[in-house]
Known about the structure:
Shape: globular
Strand order of the largest sheet: 3-4-5
Number of strands: 5
Number of helices: 4
Oligomer: single chain
Helix content: 25-40%
Distance between the termini: 20 Å
Structural class: alpha/beta
Radius of gyration: 19 Å
Amino acid sequence: xxxxxxxxxxxxxxxxxxxxxxxxxxxxxxxxxxxxxxxxxxxxxxxxxxxxxxxxxxxxxxxxxxxxxxxxxxxxxxxxxxxxxxxxxxxxxxxxxxxxxxxxxxxxxxxxxxxxxxxxxxxxxxxxxxxxxxxxxxxxxxxxxxxxxxxxxxxxxxxxxxxxxxxxxxxxxxxxxxxx
Length: 180
């Protein structure tokens, strides 16, 4: 997020640079806290975009940026990062995790239009796509055959599901998730 994601009462101890669960991170915005003020949120968005660009450009100049992985359900984010990657001359990899048009909670004319444009046309923008399921892989192969696909191997201990009775037909969707 370019405007912070946490509410003021949730503020934690996240310095601008550090490690979270063993992964190095750099937070390029002013704060992890989402400002309450409309004006401050929009100032933070602009500031965040500028600082993100400066950070990515700095990594590219130091030859520490090989590609950009984008994980977003938003059409404009995909377009924005296509422009950024083109300016930086680095490949963009899109992590496709949802079929937006199939989600019941994605209502409203704008979201449906955005989802339709993303799935029909904008998935041709990335240099490669990481689909997380066979169904998403098939969608990409049928609509964007020229775009390389990077299938993600399943990281799951299936022994926990040995006692679960499977469905009698193929394909079916097995959701492996958690809430925390």
